[in-house]
Amino acid sequence: MGNFKDMVATRELSMVMPRVLIVSRRCVRKNKFVDFVGEYHLDLIVNYGAVPVIVPRVAGIHMLLESFEPIHGVLLCEGEDVDPSLYESDFDGFSPQEMEEIKRLHSSDTAIDKEKDSIELQLAKLCLERNIPYLGICRGSQILNVACGGTLYQDVEKELARSGREKVSHIDYENYDGHRHTVNVLEKTPLEAWFRDSLGEDMKLRVNSYHHQGVKRLAERFVPMAFAADGLVEAFYDPDAYNPEEGKFIMGLQFHPERMRHGDSEMVFDYPGCPSAYQEFVKAVIAYQKKVNGEVKATKLDGEMEKKRKIIVRSFSMAKDMYTAGSTRRPIGDEDLEAGAAAALSLQQEKRLKQMGATVRNASAYMEKLKMNEEREIAARKMMSKMSIEQLSDLLSFYSVMSHICSEILEKKLMAPS
Q1: Would you call 258 a catalytic residue per the annotation?
Q2: Is 77 part of the annotated catalytic residue set?
Q3: Which terminus in the chain has less CB density within 10 A, N or C?
């Protein structure tokens, strides 16, 4: 009985709490692979009302993503460099000496993880196809851009140095959480709205970042929200897919708002707007879940099924009349069945109908109940058609809970000693 209760509780929780998929990152510890996700991400998702579901980065998991349904949101964050073969690059490549230097400076990031690339690109494309809320942080923003046809700098510092742009330090291995650099926030963007009270006239923020790659050519569907001093896109979104209240959210942030906290207190952010990306993302996730649940509609009978239903109802009515009339027999034609029987019933068919009639002596009461049920169904449909998606979703959840409670009590009664 305990397992049954746990199963019911788990099922109900999964129905109530929206699910956000997060792909883990792999590292080696004690000669073994370990999958992990940064705690800041998990805390923020949970605090704002969603359940993080970790997708392990293991071989073959990209073929099992359907098993993680329902998916109400996807958050992709840190990881290794995205495989350059996944996007068209106009860069002619680094010299062997430059490549060695890049690998030496960024040894923890330059190893390509094709399995993680495959998993995350599939999830990003799934979100784009089904309008599932998506938030990409750091590598997650790069994956989103590549999924939509954009390209990346294979090494921001070296490629931008060739163009003579201002040098910006996007990574500091000695000061992982404390490193900051300046970005310029664009007006009339979600980022500007979140940090409005902290922005001065120069529209600048100091953000934390930890990357050596970044967006080079931004995919056409996206609009930039912030730039670094060297011109690198630090944040972007899809304006046609951004309305958290309606379950729409497609966004990428190259910097790390979740890590922008005071060193002496992890509970205090640099700016009040730092957690807003997660807050608005989860708001969209919750709205998306309600919208999807609200789309579950009662199945309507098609024309053929409705025709069969009418034949069955009329047959029972005829059976009741024949049982009452005894052996009296008259020819029965198409008009008697209404739904279009081919010809008059044979003697064998009439005999069968009489037998049916004998089993429904109270057919008149049955038909009265059927009529009453139909009237109630019509009234219920009329009332529900006026309800909002949120109200319908709540109603569906309520009756699902009642169903499980009924099943549990019924099981207890059946198992009770007589």
Answers
A1: yes
A2: no
A3: C
| Active-site position among 120, 234, 258, 280 | 258
Helices 114-130 and 139-147, axial angle in degrees (round to 10)? 60
User: Is the alpha carbon torsion for 135, 139, 144, 150 positive or negative?
Assistant: positive
For strands 248-253 and 233-243, give the pairing.
antiparallel
Torsions phi, psi for 311 (to 5 deg): -60, -45
Alpha-carbon gap, residue 243 to 248, rounded angstroms: 5
Q: Is 354 helix (H, G, I), strand (E, B) or coil?
A: helix
> What letter does residue 166 receive in the DSSP assignment?
P
Q: Is 170 exposed, middle or buried (0-12, 13-18, 19+ CB in 10 A)?
A: buried
Burial group, residue 99, by CB count within 10 angstroms (0-12, 13-18, 19+): middle
Only one residue has tokens 């007006």, namely 187
Among the residue ranges 173-177, 225-229, 248-252, the one predicted with the least confidence is 173-177
Do the beta carbons of residue 354 and residue 348 sit within 8 Å?
no
How far CA 382 is from CA of 289, 372, 376, 379, 389, in Å, comes to: 24, 15, 10, 5, 15
Question: What residue has token string 């919208």?
Answer: 291
Residue 305: which H helix or E strand, with range? helix 303-325
Q: What is the pLDDT of residue 169?
A: 83
Cα 52 from chain centroid? 11
In terms of phi and psi (left: phi > 0; alpha: psi -120 to 50; beta: otherwise), the region of 338 is: left
For residue 274, indicate whether it is catalytic: no
Pull the structure tokens for residue 397.
């959840």
| CA–CA separation, 70 and 21 (whole Å) | 10
Residues 6+ apart with CB under 8 A from 55: 21, 22, 23, 24, 61, 65, 68, 119, 123
Q: How far apart are CA 216 and CA 299, in angstroms?
A: 48
By the 10 Å C-beta count (0-12 exposed, 13-18 middle, 19+ buried), 357 is classed as buried
Output DSSP code: residue 112: -
Torsion over CA of 42, 43, 45 and 46, rounded to 10 degrees?
A: 110
Q: What is the pLDDT of residues 315-331, one digit of tens each?
A: 555 555 554 555 444 55
pTM reported for the whole predicted model: 0.67
**Maximum CA extent, the chain:** 104
286 burial class (0-12, 13-18, 19+ CB within 10 angstroms)? Answer: buried
Contacts of 168 (CB under 8 A, 6+ apart): 181, 228, 229, 230, 232
pLDDT for 253: 98
